[in-house]
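Entry 14. Ran structure prediction on the chain below.
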Amino acid sequence: MDSPDTDWADVRLHVVTGKGGTGKTTVAAALALALASGGRKVLLVEVEGRQGIAQIFDLPPLPYEERKIAVAPSGGDVYALAIDPEEAMLEYMEMFYGMRRAGRALTKMGVVDFATTVAPGFRDVLVTGKTTEAVRRRGRNGRRVYDAVVLDAPPTGRITRFLNVTKEVAGLAKVGPIKNHSDLVSGVVKSPETAVHFVTLLEEMPVQETLDGVTELRAAGLPAGGIFINMVRESLLPQAALDSAVKGRLDVAELTLGLKAAGVIDGAQATSMAEALAEEIVEHARRTRLESTERESLAEAGLTTYELPLLADGVDLAGLYELAESMRTQGAA
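Output, structure tokens:
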């Protein structure tokens, strides 16, 4: 399957990060659906052990194996994998040392947990290694098994350390299989085939964390992708009305007359309702202005941005497909 004509046509590993509460896992799931649309095969990976993918797709907890979980718009398949660091380490020991049985013995003794706790960089090498292996994997026909891989990665505050595996394992091993493995992972993560996307809301804290994350990523030589602005609410009022509300020039008497003329309510209650409505309009106008300021801040990062709508009915399968379609319309997939 040829690469689609999108902003990220040459990217095969899409890393999705974001501050907690921004909808990172939701955006990763929707991006997987969007990328698979039209007959492609995409793997969606999670690494934090929260079973977030299973919850979003309304599935039982996922095992440590790749399995099909959804059909994308216009055909195409989404597979999912919940990486278990312990199982990843057993695979690692089998691959490099032929010691899977010994690895299970070490697991029973608690050595695996000890190793990944004392040296968290080693744990990150294991889970990123499994992800990049899926990116590189080819079938018997020589073609890539997956057209794209989407990684639901750790939050923004940890993303650079998580991906910068070569630096993180430098103190563990300077030669040998661990070093070679980390170099292989780094070769994929730092290549043009990878893009690290940020998920944010139009609020001060997640926007600032996004900007800080982009700066750290670039300093580490890692490839920044796009910014997905999630849960965007459309303004239902014209700009002139919003400007008047922010400046305190909203005419309550005019609102009262409008309510009466529309037959919504009459009498003394019309004034009371108009006053309450005016307060809501002012609050809406202030929020809209703040969101506009945050958009300007995000533009300073110089990355492509995509705006995803706030789902009125919450995140369900229908909502995921709606978000996926929005991404495709904007050229993200």
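DSSP finds 14 helices and eight strands in the chain. Will compare against last week's run tomorrow.
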